[in-house]
Amino acid sequence: MKRFAVAAAALVGLSGQALGAEVKIIDVKAYLFLEHAGKLSEDIVGAPPFENLPKGGGPNHETATGILVDLTFSGDKNSAPKYAAATVDIVQSGAAGRQVVTHKAFANFIFGADGIEHKAFFLEGATCMPLAIDVRAGKTEKSAKLDFHCKE
After folding, report:
1. Which region among 3-7, 20-24, 47-51, 128-132 has the lowest average model confidence (pLDDT)?
2. CATH topology of domain 2-149
3. Close Cβ partners of 129 (under 8 Å, ≥ 6 residues apart)
4. pLDDT tens sequence across 11-64
5. 3-state SS assignment for residue 48
6. Domain layout of the chain by residue ranges
7. CB proximity list for 103: less than 8 A, separation 6 or greater
8. Is pLDDT of 65 > 50?
9. DSSP per residue, 53-121
């Protein structure tokens, strides 16, 4: 795991050098997976706190245990920068102060004519603890917080 983090950090460091184009994080969105409907909710970044999502606390009393996180990046139009990378830290905080930390790294960006690319990941079983998402790409950073709570 440490090797992976070091390699990702090295790639992020290289992304700002002449070897690769700069990648910028421009947006972070998150969507609940509504299990009975089999659909995604509207973007929940900035939404009021959610309570008991696994027990029907979602929109229209839906159950939701998973979250799809959509990251939007910008770069040079029609490019595939060789050394561009981005890293994501996801921190979930439990009631007893216990934290669950997940690290992700993204590379292999291929920007189209609009200079935009999306990267996404799914978090299963993540709707009972507050969640902080921190994204770094090149010299840019974005954060999002999701307020989840469950009662026994």
Report:
1. 3-7
2. Immunoglobulin-like (2.60.40)
3. 92, 93, 94, 95, 100, 148, 149
4. 444 433 334 568 999 999 999 999 999 999 999 999 999 999 999 988 889 999
5. coil
6. 2-149
7. 1, 4, 5, 8, 87, 88, 89, 90
8. yes
9. GGGT-SGGG----EEEEEEEEE-STT---TT--EEEEEEEE-TTS-EEEEEEEE------TTSEEEEEE
